[in-house]
Amino acid sequence: MAAELLAITGATGFVGQTVLDYAARAGIEVRALARRPQDARAGVEWVQGDLNDKRALQRLVGRASVVLHIAGVVNAPDEKGFEDGNVWGTLNVVNAALEAGVPRFVHVSSLSAREPDLSVYGRSKLRGEKIVKASSLDWTVVRPPAVYGPRDTEMFELFKLARRGIVPLPPQGHLSIIHVNDLARLLLALIPGGEDVTHLTFEPDDGTPGGWTHNDLAKAIGMAVGKRATAVNLPASVLRLGAKLDAAFRGKGAKLTLDRVGYMCHPDWRAGEGNQPPPERWLPQVETAMGLHATAAWYREAGWLK
């Protein structure tokens, strides 16, 4: 698994921090991009800059054996915000890798790219994928489903609501999820490249046959926080109203946005059965009920969950 030098974007984020943890355990030397100064970390060389800073990107990928592009925009006030981060940012990283002669590129996308007409976010992630796939790089694309685990601020909203006993959800449907530890292990397992992973797109999940219904996941999160949570399936019109209210109260910090409602209401966000990574490389290890309990415990210890 070891690489001479792994260049990472998005290393300060939820998934990126976990990747750094696993890279350290594997003895992988890392160079990581960060917009702000970071505390020293063994085995990590920080490069200050962002996806629009071409000089920083040149420093990031110089001498790298592989680029792991995790950085992306999940929430933005307008289409330009998604385009700048997920399309132009990806283009800048790809160009830097090509100019530096980096042989390997692992790109983290999203299941939302599968249905680009449902949201600006999904459309921007698909465009980012197309840039990677059109390049001459030795690429692999990973489309994670909903990711949960310690440090996550997105699914944390469901844990907070479940603590109150009621979890408002989209209309009934199915989805897949994955623990951040399993996703981090997969990304590092893809470093070497090879015929079994090169020029392929993978949709990993937690291994639950048939995925999860919205209601079953809400109940499992309720159990994790010690509550018998009632799942309430809301129509799209109510979710859109909720998004407007969230924007009014939290502004740019809103978690429920109109764009997010667009893909939340899609009935099937399960990972494709034929798109799983090769089992010889990776299999999920975190059983979800245990993972949810451990995540809730982390939230409590961190003071996030009262």
Note the main attributes of this structure:
alpha/beta, NAD(P)-bd_dom_sf, seven-stranded parallel sheet, three-stranded mixed sheet, ComplexI_NDUFA9_subunit, 306 residues, NAD(P)H-binding protein, Epimerase_deHydtase
Characterise the protein shown here.
This protein is of the alpha/beta class and 306 residues long. The chain has a domain at 6-147 and 178-205 and 271-285: 3-Layer(aba) Sandwich (Rossmann fold). Helices cover 40% and strands 17% of the residues. The protein has helices at residues 14-26, 54-61, 79-100, 120-134, 156-163, 180-189, 214-224, 236-250, 258-264, 288-301; strands at 6-9, 30-34, 44-48, 66-69, 104-108, 138-142, 146-148, 166-169, 174-175, 177-179, 200-202, 212-213, 230-233, 268-269. The strands form 4 sheets. Strands 3-2-1-4-5-6-11 form a 7-stranded parallel sheet, with helices on both faces. Helix 4 links the parallel strand 5 and strand 6 (138-142). Helix 2 packs across helix 3 (79-100) and helix 7 (214-224) packs across helix 10. The termini are far apart. The relative contact order is 0.13. The model has no long low-confidence stretch (mean pLDDT 92).
Query: What's the CATH topology label of the domain at 6-147 and 178-205 and 271-285?
Result: Rossmann fold
Structural class comes to: alpha/beta
Residue share in helices? 40-55%
The helix count comes to: 10
Radius of gyration (CA) equals: 19 Å
End-to-end gap: 40 Å
Based on Cα principal axes, name the global outline: globular
Largest sheet: 7 strands, parallel
Give the strand line-up of the largest sheet: 3-2-1-4-5-6-11
CATH architecture classification of the domain at 6-147 and 178-205 and 271-285: 3-Layer(aba) Sandwich
> How would you spell out the order of helices and strands?
EHEEHEHEHEEHEEEHEEHEHHEH
Relative strand content: 15-25%
The first-level CATH class name of the domain at 6-147 and 178-205 and 271-285: Alpha Beta
Contiguous low-pLDDT stretches (5 residues minimum) are none
Give the full name of the CATH homologous superfamily of the domain at 6-147 and 178-205 and 271-285: NAD(P)-binding Rossmann-like Domain
Please state the average pLDDT score: 92
Organism: Novosphingobium jiangmenense
InterPro entries: ComplexI_NDUFA9_subunit, Epimerase_deHydtase, NAD(P)-bd_dom_sf
Protein name: NAD(P)H-binding protein
Pfam families: Epimerase (PF01370)
